[in-house]
Design the sequence.
């Protein structure tokens, strides 16, 4: 009987070329890769998995896994899921303030153009 505790490892990646956040979850023999966008072809997915193996994030037997199907041969599952991505509160506040300012500026410009059109 194996007495070692069962651990789930989670590692986040960001691919700037494809503007995609990736979450690698290794839970025993099951591997799930969650992507925020569907920006990876089947060939690129296989290449990414080989890169994870080369960097030591996955064992060697995952190097030739098939990612064409939702559940791959060695238990690698690739899914599109944004629910895991949590934005920091500061980012949300800053973005909300910026959006409010842009809305106000746009409204003032629109009102200015409307007044100019009506009283010209």
Sequence:
């Amino acid at each position: 009987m194996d007495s070692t505790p069962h651990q789930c490892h989670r590692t986040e990646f960001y691919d700037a070329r494809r503007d995609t956040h990736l979450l690698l979850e290794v839970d025993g023999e099951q591997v799930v890769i969650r992507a925020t966008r569907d920006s990876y072809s089947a060939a690129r997915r296989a290449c990414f998995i080989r890169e994870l193996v080369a960097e030591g994030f996955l064992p060697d037997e995952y190097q030739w896994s098939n990612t064409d199907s939702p559940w791959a041969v060695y238990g690698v599952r690739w899914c599109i899921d944004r629910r895991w991505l949590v934005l920091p509160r500061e980012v949300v506040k800053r973005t909300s303030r910026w959006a409010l300012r842009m809305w106000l500026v746009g409204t003032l410009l629109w009102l200015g153009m409307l007044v100019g059109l009506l009283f010209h």
Observations:
- Residues 89-118 form the longest helix (30 residues).
- The CA atoms of residues 38 and 80 lie 6 Å apart.
